[in-house]
From TrEMBL, chain A:
UniProt keyword terms in alphabetical order: Membrane, Transmembrane, Transmembrane helix
Biological source species: Natribacillus halophilus
Key word Iron present: no
Protein name: ABC-2 type transport system permease protein
Regions crossing the membrane: 12-38, 53-73, 94-117, 129-154, 166-182, 215-236
Origin superkingdom: Bacteria
Protein's UniProt keywords contain Transmembrane: yes
From TrEMBL, chain B:
Organism the protein comes from: Natribacillus halophilus
Name of the molecule in the record: ABC-2 type transport system permease protein
Residue intervals of the ABC-2 type transporter transmembrane domain: 47-223
Keywords: Membrane, Transmembrane, Transmembrane helix
A single Gene Ontology CC term: ATP-binding cassette (ABC) transporter complex
Stored InterPro entries: ABC-2_transporter (IPR052902), ABC2_TM (IPR013525)
Places the protein is found: Membrane
GO terms assigned for molecular function: ABC-type transporter activity
Amino acid sequence: MRELYTMRFTALRLIRAWVVLLLLFVVPFVLVTLLSIIMGDAEEGGLLLRNEINVMMVLAFQLFGGSVAMNYIHQDFFTERRYRIQSLPMNTTLYGFTTMLIGTLYSIILGALLAGYTVLVWNVDWGNIAWSIFIIALMATLSSIVCLIFTFSVKKFNIAERLSEVYGVGAILIAGLIFPMPDHAVINWVNEYINPIMLAYEAIDAYRNANVGDAWMNAGLLGGLIVITFVIMLLLGRRRMP
Amino acid sequence: MTIFTFALKRIFKDKTNLIFLTLFPVAAIFLPEPEYWPLLPYGYHYFGVLILFVGIRLTGLLVEDRQKGVVKRLAAAPVTHFQYLFQNLLAFSVIVIAQCIFMIAGGVIYDHELHEPLLLLILFIVFSFTAIALSLAWNSLYRNKETSFLVFMCVIIIMALLGGIMMPIEMLPDVLEQLAVIFPTYWLAEGMEWVVMGEDTADFLLINGVLLLYTLLFLIIGSIRRMG
């Protein structure tokens, strides 16, 4: 199982990538801290704004977690390094999967650390923290799969990177986090059934309000999206991967 | 003006630049008007953030030149470092001025309530110069274009939050409110508020003056020749 042994080195590569840590951990950490200070104990409709904003912030950064898997798969399979990887005595497809797994795990760990920080320092109510981490894991997995779909579906990696940003920023915009979106049937439908950040938030919020049925429904929708996108990723990957 | 023409060609050859320079401003024009805050339509209020992104993308050309050794080869060419920098900055300025004019003209045609479109245009142009100078200074710290862009993206988020673009400055705690004056985005937010409220003219001059001072400061820092 040489492929599994490579996970250690992929993890080492990740630890050394300080820009990734800055983007996926330091920035949300600073934002969560600042927003918690700014919001204080302000309430809206009997709900603490701090709870809502901090949960959204942690989830929003999970949308960009897929960039890790995307970059590593590109570096290892779509640059000159691919010839070195192909000449190694191991199953390259499995190696690709382990890279994706490590990228996703890294994103989950950072998300869990942020969630822990918000609970311990800012007393944010996540409902059930284990359930929240499960939802974060679903979001991180979806993000990695979507980013890999972009990597496999366009020829220029720059365009794939921009598309991954469109996916993240687009989801945040449609969720109305930057400014309120118009009350339009299509936008409402997207937020209710497709937008990952809204599905994840609703799943956490429903569990927090002891509405377990709704929580599972939203988690199920996220799971459904993961299955659909995973199949697309496999089909595209089989065509493009060396 | 060979470098100037060449800089323009290089910028428009990049498809991502084209999206930043055309598609995003067009989308911004059509964004709705808020109920209470911000005072300007959303697209115009957040235009400053877009300007910062445009600034870092445009000045990224200079990092690329350093990465590829173009700056070293320039030393042997019959072109001074000043000419190289000036003509590149002129090309960037022409592009951002055109973008600001397009944005304001679009708003006027779309019948947005911009209060004082001409003064808003001046404010945006001055802020664009600050953004270019800031990006130039920022890029001079890096050898890699991608790293510079990614870290600057974080800085933009923090500057927008603490400078009063993401939320009213009054919502910040006293310490952060006082600290906000160091961010150029604070002066942009103040300028936009002035355009809507229209109080003392001296205040508008002060806001633009501060932004121009920032521009000068960042230009000095960013102009120091680095061969890489």
